[in-house]
Write a structure and sequence with these properties.
This protein has 524 residues and is mostly helical. The protein contains 20 helices and three strands. The protein has a three-stranded antiparallel β-sheet.
Length: 524
């Protein structure tokens, strides 16, 4: 199964690589501009001071100056970042099999590594090039920060509610594994009390936003400060506020990690989640092995005994039909052959494959997966940021006439959090209070990591490079969504209808940023 998945991944990557080459060459055959017009536009962009530059085909990575070419490149780099995020998540969870304390792994290592892809995109968006170019690309970093936080608290919030819904009993609590007719008010989920602690941490870690944003609001009240050009320096107190915000974010991160290590409940549930997923994989593999062996048994008694043995294994391990569906495992129909050779004894390789892996092998696999995943994130985050910037770059032959913030708001969270979202939904599908509590704790915890680690990285860029902080609208919607979701989520039972306004906040946030930055309001 692993070999098939690996080869399938290789085929996908090779196919995307062909598309990338086609995308990078797309602009060479675009006749929408005359050569003289293209030269004039390129020269004007190279001499402008707004930070936008045309596609530079002399770099290591391919680029394009058309919409179609950049869309192809975006899909390619997004797929690679998604694979990298999956490797980091799987490699980190393998550490739980090494006998290390679950509180240390689940409370410290996994949350930090889970935030690595978003943090890497933020870093590369503002660390390279001259200040004016970094200022222009920093929109991608802010789109990543805002989009990741808001997306995790809205779309997956509703998805987990729908997937994990159970019937609500007379006491107002959801009853585990009970699913009747769909009802907006009669079905929902009930969380454990310590999930509310995750909500409190999420809301408390939004306080550092007010430090940097308060300084910017003060600047907006001064006409000479509010009308600065993108290349003009902001008052020194804004950069001091960025430094203070960075320090507070780091201290908040340390305190949050320390609490996670001290409070072992969340970490133990994360460890239990990993153990259950491991059992599902192993039983699925055994299920395939037993059914394949039964295909070579004789008709009648041997076949019946093989089917009974398979059924007993499935029943003994407590694996339900939905688990096999989740892992794309289906029980094949019994063979209709009338005669077949006697069942061959299992080979040494098969017996050895069913044994648990040693800790040394698990440690090597974990380190290799983490190393490859982190390297891929570091390598492909930079071209991903470039592509998102070029997709909306006015200096290209064709472009999408919107700020890069909106593109990164939608695209980068999907790439960096896809594996985590799928895992959370599959875990919520078990329809138990413990599992659904783990899912929502993971969502609130991811928002907390964005408020601490990712914001600290952003503030470090603003302070170290002297960049402008011009994200009042974006910060406002980040704070608004977290406050609303925190208030809605601070209850014991979530009924299905509650998820509808929560999911709607995702689209409201995008529209509100556009409104606040329009000429009607005039925010930066």
């Amino acid at each position: 199964m692993a070999t098939f998945t690996t080869w399938r991944l290789v085929v996908v990557v090779v196919s995307l690589a062909v598309l990338v080459q086609a995308g990078s060459d797309w602009g060479q055959y675009d006749n929408s501009f005359d050569d003289s017009d293209w030269v004039t536009l390129t020269n004007s962009c190279n001499t402008s001071s707004n930070g936008t530059k045309p596609c530079n085909s002399e770099g290591i990575f391919p680029c394009s100056h058309t919409i179609m070419g950049n869309l192809i490149l975006m899909i390619f780099y997004g797929a690679l970042l998604g694979v990298a995020a999956k490797l980091i998540a799987d490699g980190a969870e393998l550490l739980l099999d090494l006998g290390l304390p679950p509180a240390l792994i689940g409370g410290l290592v996994l949350p930090v590594l889970g935030a690595v892809p978003d943090a890497a995109i933020i870093i590369v968006s503002g660390i390279g090039g001259p200040p004016e170019e970094a200022q222009a690309q920093l929109q991608v970093g802010m789109g990543t920060l805002a989009g990741s936080t808001i997306m995790l608290l809205t779309i997956p919030w509703l998805g987990s509610l729908l997937v994990g819904r159970c019937d609500i009993g007379p006491d107002g609590n959801a009853r585990d594994r009970t699913t009747g007719r769909f009802s907006l008010v009669g079905q929902g989920v009930t969380i454990l009390p310590d999930v509310k602690t995750s909500i409190i941490f999420m809301l408390l870690t939004t306080l550092p936003f007010f430090i940097i944003q308060g300084a910017d609001w003060h600047c907006m009240s001064i006409p000479s400060c509010d009308k600065l050009n993108p290349t003009d320096p902001q008052p020194a107190y804004i950069h001091y506020a960025a430094f203070v915000t960075m320090i507070l974010c780091v201290l908040s991160l340390i305190f949050y990690m320390g609490f996670q290590v001290y409070d072992a409940k969340t970490a133990e549930r994360r460890a239990k989640k990993h153990q259950q997923e491991t059992v599902m994989r192993r039983i699925a593999q055994r299920f395939y092995t037993m059914t394949s062996r039964s295909a070579f048994t004789e008709a009648g008694g041997e076949e019946g005994r093989g089917a009974q043995e398979t059924d007993s294994i499935v029943n003994r391990e407590g694996i339900q039909k939905k688990y096999f569906n989740a892992w794309k495992v289906r029980q094949p129909s019994r063979p209709t052959v009338t005669a077949a050779p006697a069942e061959s004894p299992p080979s040494d390789d098969e017996e050895e494959g069913e044994k648990e892996e040693s800790k040394a092998i698990i440690a090597v696999k974990s380190v290799v997966m983490l190393f490859i995943g982190i390297v891929m994130v570091c390598v492909f985050s930079d071209p991903m940021v470039d592509v998102l910037s070029q997709l909306t770059n006015k200096c290209n032959k064709s472009f999408i006439p919107i700020p890069a913030f909106y593109v990164s708001f939608v695209v980068t969270p999907i790439c960096s959090n896809a594996s985590e979202l799928v895992s959370s939904l599959m875990f919520a599908a078990k329809r138990t209070r413990t599992n659904i509590s783990m899912t929502y704790s993971q969502l609130y915890g991811a928002a907390t990591m964005n408020n601490t680690l990712c914001l600290a990285v952003f503030m470090a860029l603003v302070y170290a490079r002297g960049l402008q902080w011009v994200y009042s609208a974006e910060v406002f919607v980040i704070l608004l969504v977290q406050l609303v979701v925190g208030m809605i989520g601070y209850r014991d039972t979530y009924k299905i209808w509650i998820g509808i306004p929560v999911a709607t906040l995702y689209f409201v946030a995008i529209g509100m940023v556009a409104l606040l930055e329009s000429s009607l309001v005039g925010w930066k």
